[in-house]
Amino acid sequence: MTALLRTAVSPRLPRPLPGMPGKSKHTRLALEQETLDPSNWHEFRAQGHRMLDDMLDYIEHVRKRPVWQPIPREVRHAFREALPRQPGDMAAAHEQFMRQVLPYAAGNVHPGFMGWVHGGGTPVGMLAEMLAGGLNANLGGRDQMPLEVERQVVQWVRELFGFPEAASGLFVTGSSMANLIALLVARTAALGAQVRHKGLAECSKRLVAYTSAGAHGCIPQAMNVSGLGTDALRMIAVNERHQMDIDALERAIETDRRAGLTPFFIAATAGTVDVGAIDELAAIAECARREGLWFHVDGAFGALAMLSPELAPLLAGIELADSIAMDFHKWGQVPYDAGFVLVRDSAIQLETFGSTAAYLRRDARGLAAGSPWPGDMGPDLSRGFRALKTWFTLKVHGADRLGAMISRTCALARRMQERIEAEPALELLAPVALNIVCFRYRAAGVAGVTADRINADIVADLHESGICAPSTTSVKGKLAIRAAIVNHRTSAKEIDALIAATLALGAASEKKRRGPG
Ligand SMILES: *Cc1c(COP(=O)(O)O)cnc(C)c1O
Asked: What value, to the nearest 5°, has the Cα angle with vertex 344 and ends 361 and 267?
């Protein structure tokens, strides 16, 4: 067959189809128009190598830079321009990037970055992104090897969490999307696939979901987007270790049942965003099983603690989850974005999102084979090749080394805790369960200025100093300086610098407020 085709099809340009205009000079010019590929590959290649070198230099020498610096008004202003109509020079655009964009990024590549929960990325991940960009693969479906790369990573994730072969996994933007997808799959499990057509208005059951007061804001957001509404989400109180209070959870389920509502979904958290607490997953799994509820774990950053033999026992019970949301772009150090959702029963996920559109018709052979496609497992159709940078990261660094690095960030958090407890001017505000430390400067609270204000100012001053970048949160009504140690480059040096700078800024602030004398 193939040989037959080879002789039948000319390797040269396709012949014009009947009815198409002949070879007037005009159409020849239009048809032979240049592509967007470089006209001089030699020059382009040299420019490409310069860009590669610049980014490798940036990562290699990032420690010599400030973590972050304010964007000067002139830079922000000078960047604005009208839509460029004419071709520009690649070297000039690169130069503008180096001058106006690169120096004013958020700084999460830097070891002094400890704000929010940001991954540090790696040179390996960066190069893998370049390969993925060159291939320009669309992982919505079709029979292509890039999808086998994703399926391989899915298999590794199943292994990591002890999930069965029938479990499905899907790369998504981040855990916000992963949590939403899990909630929608659970909604199908509770209401049946007809909810796709009939919507919630036609449904007599009133679904209710449960999470803890420490849950990430994307859980209420998922309730909003799914149409269930945030009023149908119970924010269960937490205990002194910031874990979901399981007695309170059971009482809430009972109260809702008595009121004629239908409890259906519990979102536990493995690594809360504010303090890094891990809910008692095994006990919540047991409660969900007894009550017949879907057991979901938001493990956005914490789930990858499974890579560390020392930390994995803290997540006992995660293997019982019906679904898990997690991010490779946080503790996994894969460059943004690389979120992931794992669902125990792929059939329900397919029921939730599977497509029957004519233009997505599947076949047993040819490029349209290999069904089901990832586009059947979530709302996205076109999808980038996030799996490749994750595959490279795991292949090159290995799961054990990533696990050891995750473990080290927790050891650094304990060191920071010790330093805080040894300083009378500092106060630890929450127990350190993993890699997140919440503390504050004990400000005397000079008239008219609250301790919250003083600590918020310390954090803004730290950012502007370029030394380190923690963020803030609120713990039991107090504003906390929050350090989330996620970056593999962070060392004891940065921890000590944060403590020293906080003490110096706090003392300076008090001195200033007391005034001279
Ligand atoms: C970061 C985080 C999220 C949100 O994940 P994104 O990847 O930013 O969408 C959700 N839950 C927790 C616990 C997180 O730490």
From this structure: 115
> What is the distance in A from the centroid of ligand 1 to the CA of 298?
8
What are the structure tokens assigned to 358, written together?
């004519």
Tell me, using a 6 A CB cutoff, whether residue 340 lines ligand 1. Answer: no
Mean pLDDT on 1-6: 58
Q: Specify the CATH number for 401-514; select among 3.30.360.10, 3.90.1150.170, 1.10.3210.10, 2.40.33.20.
A: 3.90.1150.170
Residue 302 dihedral angles phi and psi, to the nearest 5° = -70, -30
Query: How many whole angstroms from 288 Cα to the centroid of ligand 1?
Result: 23
- Asked if residue 310 lies in contact with residue 407, where contact means CB atoms within 8 angstroms, the answer is yes
| pLDDT value of position 425 | 96
Ligand 1 center to 277 CA (angstroms): 14
Ramachandran area for residue 407 (φ above 0: left; ψ -120 to 50: alpha; else beta):
alpha
The CATH 3.90.1150.170 domain(s) of the chain lie at 401-514
- 129-397 maps to which CATH number? 3.40.640.10
pLDDT at residue 17 tops 60: no
- Determine if ligand 1 sits within 6 Å of the CB of residue 301: yes
Q: Which residue has the tokens 């963020």?
A: 471
Q: What is the pLDDT of residues 32-66, one digit of tens each?
A: 778 999 999 999 999 999 999 999 999 999 999 99
- Give 476 Cα–ligand 1 centroid separation in angstroms: 21
Residue from 114, 176, 329, 390 whose mutation best tests the ligand 1 pocket (most atoms within 8 A of CB): 176
Chain segment 160-183, per-residue pLDDT in tens: 999 999 999 999 999 999 999 999
Tens digits of per-residue pLDDT, 81-131? Answer: 999 999 999 999 999 999 999 999 999 999 999 999 999 999 999 999 999
Query: ω into residue 322 within 30 of 0, thus cis?
Result: no
Q: How many residues does the chain have?
A: 517
CB of 378 sitting under 6 A from ligand 1:
no
Q: What is the pLDDT of residue 443?
A: 85
User: Is 353 near ligand 1, meaning CB less than 6 Å away?
Assistant: no
